[in-house]
Amino acid sequence: MRLYATTHGLLLERDGGFVRPAGDFTLDQLFASADPVALAARAFAAGVASGAGPLPGSLAAPIQSQEVWADRVYEADRPELFFKATPHRVAAPGSGVRIRADSKWNVPEPELTLAINAAGRIFGFTIGNDMSSRDIEGENPLYLPQAKVYDRSAALGPCLVITSDLPAPSTVIAIELRRDGAAVFTGETTVASIKRTLPSLADWLFRENSFPHGCYLMTGTGVVPPDTFTLRRGDEIRITLAPVGTLVNTVL
Q1: Per residue in 205-227, pLDDT tens?
Q2: Contact indicator for 137, 123 with CB cutoff of 8 Å
Q3: Do you find a cis peptide bond into 243, omega within 30 degrees of 0?
Q4: Can you name the CATH fold of 61-251?
């Protein structure tokens, strides 16, 4: 099942059929549920059929009160998990992400992004764009929050896949960067390249930490443009993950 957040409310889609869930169904309710997959199924069954799917340009990021965290690829027993964004810093599909004015080397990072409920259970996934100022990050390890956390430093979407099944290791994560209508970088990897098991990342994140509204966790994949490349304003970022679709954002 897929959940789309739109400017006119939530839509649930299954097997090509769209419904508008009952008015009391929210993303916060979904993330707080002990069994989000079952809750979504009930909401779909009780929803009002809608003949029209989500329209291009009308999508919102599938987030309400959730924090966004991320995993930096790191060789150690303990993963390097870091805070990434609050909801108001997350860009919607089709909208703009930002590069810092005080940075000269900026890149996107395509991420399989896990949806985790308040109990620490993974119940779905989406696409994440982890915008990074690599020159700031490399200058001083203590600058990581400034390199990673700023307005529109992340994007999520185009939908949230609600499922008990994690993506297969062979699932492809692809990125294409376009400038003036032409591709200037393409790259891809698979879920198998993620260094740690997905449940272990969720377990580490929830150690000594609580998320009353659940959270999103971006998982590091390591697909980034070469060191000679930096984003410019107007560049288009396209990240594709087959079960989710393609997340498209333009650099502001």
Answers
A1: 999 999 999 999 999 877 889 99
A2: no
A3: no
A4: Fumarylacetoacetate hydrolase; domain 2 (3.90.850)
**CA-CA distance, 151 to 163, in Å (whole number)?**
30
Q: State both tokens at 82.
A: 């870091």
Query: CA distances (Å), 32 to each of 164, 214, 229, in order?
Result: 16, 6, 41
- The b/e string for 145-177 (b: 16+ C-beta within 10 A; e otherwise) is ebbbbbebbbbbbbbbbbbeebbeeebebbbbb
Query: Once rounded to an integer, what is the mean pLDDT over residues 80-103?
Result: 97
Residue 181: partners with Cβ closer than 8 Å, 6 or more residues away: none
Q: What is the pTM of this model?
A: 0.96
Q: Is beta strand 67-72 parallel, antiparallel or unpaired with respect to 80-85?
A: antiparallel
Tens-place pLDDT, residues 181-197: 999 999 999 999 998 99
Report CA-CA distances (Å) from 238 to 108, 167, 249.
10, 20, 7
Q: Pick from 241, 25, 239, 203: which is nearest to 116 by CA? A: 203
The number of beta carbons lying within 10 Å of the beta carbon of residue 180 is 9
How do the domains of the chain map onto residue ranges? 61-251
